[in-house]
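FORM 7B: Structural annotation worksheet

SECTION A. Query
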Amino acid sequence: MMLKRLLDTLDGVPEALHEFYEEKDGKFHLLAETEDTSALKSAKDHEKEARQKAEQELRDLRAAEADKIAKAEEAARAKALKEARENSDLDALDKSWKAKFDAMVAEKTAEKATLTEAINGEKIKSVASELASDISIAPALLQPLIEARLSVELTEGKFNTRVLDAAGQPSALSMDDLRAEFVGNDAFKGVMKAGNASGGGATNSNGGGATNKPFAEMTASERVALKQSNPDQFRKMNAETQGHLNRI
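SECTION B. Predicted structure
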């Protein structure tokens, strides 16, 4: 700090330096007659030390306050946690999160079940359609009946078709067994392909246009020929086929 030789007032001058000024004629004069500058230097050093000490005390005070605040916050958290435990708030929070988790699991389970059901349905339709087309001239009529006899199981990551019994219960029947059951059912012989029909469904007729085909497999020209050559047989076979279709 640069000391001025003449001041109107000592305001702003550190109190430790006031002794080095003399008031004369309403002014403050720096004592120039003294040759001892050590006192002035000592005063400045004292002022610097006092300032540094005050600054350090302020830092220490701030650190102490910060530590005090941290300890108070920790104590408040500990108290709140204790009260929460005593009031079972944590149990309520746990239950809330568990309910949320259970709901999410249930949603994913439902999505998986829906997807599995869709895959099963497509698998059953595909197998039933293939069998119905293989044995029948009217696969659309037999397919729903075959579908009702099938189920799908997921085994080792693969979807496998299982044959159900007539009551819709799991069985040891194979697809070949199911095929034989439908082919051997007299109720379906009118819509079976040639070579699949069994029993007395095959019909012989006399005269031109004679055929052993089931009526449903005859072409238009063959039916016309049968009607012309054997009208009674034509009416019988036609009525028989319609009766089978109506019963399906």
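SECTION C. Observations
Helices lie at 37-86, 89-135, 139-147, 175-183, 220-229, 231-247. The first strand starts at residue 6 and ends at 7.

SECTION D. Sign-off
Analyst initials: ____
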